[in-house]
Amino acid sequence: MFESDIKVTYRLFKEMLSSGSEGLFITSTFPSKIEKAYGIKGTSYLWLSNLGEKDAVSPRALEKELIPRIEDFVRENPTSVIFLDSVESLYADNDRNDFFNFMKWLSSTPATHMVTLLIPIDPDILPRNDINNLARLFDVVMDVRNITIETDGKECPQCGAVWNPNVTVCSICGYEFVSKARAPEKKEVGAVESEPVERMKEEKISPLPEYEEDFLGIKVEGPPRAGDHGPGSWFKKGVEYEKQGLSEKAIDAYKNALEEAPNDPWTWINMGVSYQRLAMSEEALRCYDNAIKLNPLDADAWSNRAIALRLMGKIEQAVESYDRALAIDPGDAGIWSNKGVALRALGKVNEALECYDQALAIDPYDVGTWLNKAVLLQRTGRIDEALKCYDEILRLDPYHPVAMKNKELLSRLG
C-alpha cells in the first residue's frame, strides 16, 4: 500500500487478527512500543535491529536470518497475515539487488501458502523507479494516502499511532499533540475590549456554531465571571484530577464548578482539555465555544478549538480558528506550529513551512516544531534541508530517537 502515515494498514492488520488470523509483525520499532501505540495484541514479532539484542533479527541478514524466520512462521501458520512496516529501512540497510531479491521472494509467499501480505510504503521516500519496480512484484497495490479512518483513542496525525488520551507526545515519531499546554492554574478573566472584537467580526471567518440546546443544560450568557479557584474548590479538584490523568473525574469536578459559576471561561477551557484527552472532540469543541462566547479575546481558547476541529477532520475550519488565535496573540510559537500541522494536512506545503519558520523565529528551541518541519521537507524531497533540521534537533537534543533514525536513513539513501 502507498501510505505516508501508516493508519489504514494498521487497522487492516488489527481487523484480520480479530477475525482469527495468526499474525507476524516485522518492524524496526521495538515491539512493546507497537503494542502500546496501536493496541495490537496476539501477534508474533520479528524485531529488525542492528544492536545485537536478544530476539532481534539483523536487517542486513536477509537470506541468512530473516527469510528462515519467516519460513518457520509460515510453516507453522499456513493461514496467516504478515505485516512488514520497515521497507524503507531494509532498502537503506542492504545492497539494492539483495533487497529486491528478498522482496521478490516475499511477494511469492502467498502463491504457495494462504498468506496475506500487508506492506505499507511511503512513495515519497524511495526513488521513483524503485517504487515502480516494487509495485510490479505484487498483485494488488492500493494508494490509501487520502483515506481517513476513525480511531478508538488519540491518533497521532504524523505516524498514525493511537495513544491513551492523556499522552502528550507520540513515542513512535515524537509528534507533540499540543505544542503549548495550558497551565492548570488560576487565570484572571478581564473585561472584553470592544475594538479588537469588532475588527475580528469584520474578518471573513466562519462564525461560531449555534447549538440546538445549551451544553450540559448550563446557560452561558452575560459577562465573563471567574468562579472559586481556591484550594478545595471544584475547579481546583478538576485540575488535580487532570494532573493524575483522571480526565473523567476532572470533567465531573468542572461540571460542579460550572453549576456554581456558569460564566467562568477558564473552567470551560479546562473541561474542554479534559474532553480532548478522552478523544471526545465534539464535547471539547462545545466547551471551547462557550469559553469564546464569554471571552472572544482568549487566544488559547481559539487555539484549543482549532486542535479539536483538526482532530475531527475539519481542517479548513481549524485553520480559521488558528487565524483568530494569531490575530490576538501573534507571538505564540505553539499556535504557529499547530497551524503549520493543519496546513500540511491540506497539502499546503509552502504555507505550512512558513508557519513553522514563524514559530522557530519566536522559539528556536522547540524540538517539536523542528521535527514537524524536517518531516515535511523529507516527504517533499527536500532532503538536504530536512537533514539540516535533524542536525538542529540533535544539537538541542543529542539523543532524540526520531532525528537520529531519520538522519541515518536519509544519509544512507544519499
Structure description:
The protein is an alpha/beta fold. It folds into two domains: 8-149, P-loop containing nucleotide triphosphate hydrolases (Rossmann fold, 3-Layer(aba) Sandwich); 194-413, Tetratricopeptide repeat domain (Serine Threonine Protein Phosphatase 5, Tetratricopeptide repeat, Alpha Horseshoe). Helices cover 53% and strands 7% of the residues. It has helices spanning 8-18, 31-38, 62-76, 87-93, 96-112, 128-136, 194-202, 234-243, 247-260, 265-277, 281-294, 299-311, 315-328, 333-345, 349-362, 367-379, 383-396, 401-413; strands at residues 22-27, 44-48, 56-57, 79-84, 114-118, 154-155, 162-163. Strands 3-2-1-4-5 form a five-stranded parallel beta sheet, with helices on both faces. It has a two-stranded antiparallel ribbon with strand order 6-7. Helix 2 (31-38) links the parallel strand 1 (22-27) and strand 2 (44-48). The two termini are 24 Å apart. Mean pLDDT is 79; it is low at 148-152 and 179-205.
Give the helix/strand layout.
Layout: H1 8-18, E1 22-27, H2 31-38, E2 44-48, E3 56-57, H3 62-76, E4 79-84, H4 87-93, H5 96-112, E5 114-118, H6 128-136, E6 154-155, E7 162-163, H7 194-202, H8 234-243, H9 247-260, H10 265-277, H11 281-294, H12 299-311, H13 315-328, H14 333-345, H15 349-362, H16 367-379, H17 383-396, H18 401-413
Helix pairs in contact: 4-18, 8-9, 8-10, 9-10, 10-11, 11-12, 12-13, 12-14, 13-14, 14-15, 15-16, 16-17, 17-18
